[in-house]
Amino acid sequence: MSQQVALITGITGQDGSYLAEQLLDKGYVVHGLIRRSSTFNTARIDHLYLDPHDPDARLFLHYGDLTDGSRLVTLLERVEPTEVYHLGAQSHVRVSFDEPEFTGDVTGLGTTRLLEALRVSKVPARFYQASSSEMFGATPPPQNENAFFYPRSPYAAAKVYSYWMVRNYREAYGLFACNGILFNHESPRRGETFVTRKITMAIARIAAGLQDVLYLGNLEARRDWGYAPEYADAMWRMLQADEPADYVVATGTSYSVGDFVRMAFEHADLDWEKHVKFDPRYLRPTEVDDLIGDATKAKDVLGWQAQTFTPELVKIMVDADRARLGA
Ligand code: NAP
Ligand code: G4F
């Protein structure tokens, strides 16, 4: 079989790191787009990296940015990937209310720039788009591939735009392009300002005597939280299918933020009521109240099913953060 070559945008993020790990294990050569930064931003993939002079090196990193379309063309021409996984985004919903224009540029137009770079470079790669359950927004659960999009944030609106651009390039140019509509997925590598990781890191710090209070916003919102490495596997499966299509990836269960808090504090033998306080600064102008995904299509077509559910995920994350601090 010919060498499989993947290009991953967002390789330094939670999902990019798990996906890179899995693709390297499968024998792929992996290229990643990274942003130039004055400090290193590669902590999640450092364990995978070998000096490019090493004959065993199969992971290569390239500077670039989703706001720079011409760079995306030159990179595709140089790397000639067989598969492109587009995970790069301004991915924080609350931040998108403060920076709506920037979020539209990176999370929305960034997808168009990459699709257009594929079209003009004529590189015949399969394309994965990191679509999101946020796109369903106010549509009541359960949400499957046919549920209406009702975005409730600039982030979600940018993702809906990207979703339709992917559909358009599939229909207009015959691109093998898939939207993975992934529900929330978490891990010990989750960004520290998303609610699950904020909670589990705070618990570790409280247990270590480094912090006393955890400030949170809305505890009533419900999410369908799965385990990130399993969701990276679903991305790969989509690009191995016979036909390009769009898939919901989810556990089919939901818990409130308050449930997550209670389970996490209980697992650490701490009383959450002594430590959790409300701060309105973490509320959003419009909220997504309830997400529960129906991943029947992913099970039937891709053979994918969630293995790890929220209560177990809570334990994995609390244990990892406590181990990190030795608490
Ligand atoms: P993440 O940890 O926030 O990672 C985002 C990645 O995008 C990082 O590598 C970041 O680089 C990169 N990035 C941001 N702006 C960029 C730009 N202008 N140019 C190039 N790269 C840029 O996100 P994640 O949780 O891994 O999620 C991956 C993707 O799935 C995102 O598109 C997200 O919106 C989507 N998604 C996530 C979930 C979830 O629950 N995790 C659910 C549905 C969809 P730096 O490291 O330099 O910041
Ligand atoms: O952890 P969150 O910030 O994730 P959110 O908004 O659901 O978005 C994540 O999942 C999406 C998939 O549905 C992705 F597309 C997106 O990129 C991102 O990965 O917030 C979860 C819930 C919200 O209802 C929020 O209002 O937690 C609530 N919350 C309460 N207190 C908080 C806080 N969220 C954060 N980040 N920080 C708080 O202090």
Number of helices: 11
Heteromolecules bound: NADP nicotinamide-adenine-dinucleotide phosphate, ligand G4F
Q: Which whole number gives the mean pLDDT?
A: 98
How far apart are the termini?
48 Å
Side-by-side strand order of the widest sheet: 3-2-1-4-5-6-11
Helical percentage: 40-55%
Poorly predicted regions are none
General shape: globular
Q: Tell me how many strands there are.
A: 13
Structural class estimated from helices and strands: alpha/beta
Percent strand equals 15-25%
H-E string: EHEEHEHHEHEEHEEEHEEHHEHH
Main sheet characteristics = 7 strands, parallel
- What's the gyration radius in Å? 20 Å
Structural overview:
It is a single chain. This protein has 327 residues and is an alpha/beta fold. 41% of the residues lie in helices and 15% in strands. The protein contains eleven helices and 13 strands. It has a seven-stranded parallel sheet, with helices on both faces. α2 (69-79) runs parallel beside α4 and α8 crosses α11. The radius of gyration is 20 Å and the shape is globular. The chain starts with a strand and ends with a helix. The model has no long low-confidence stretch (mean pLDDT 98). Residues 9-10, 12-16, 33, 35, 41, 65-67, 87-91, 106, 130, 132, 182, 184-185, 191 line the site of NADP nicotinamide-adenine-dinucleotide phosphate. The site of NADP nicotinamide-adenine-dinucleotide phosphate (NAP) has 25 residues, from α1 and β5.
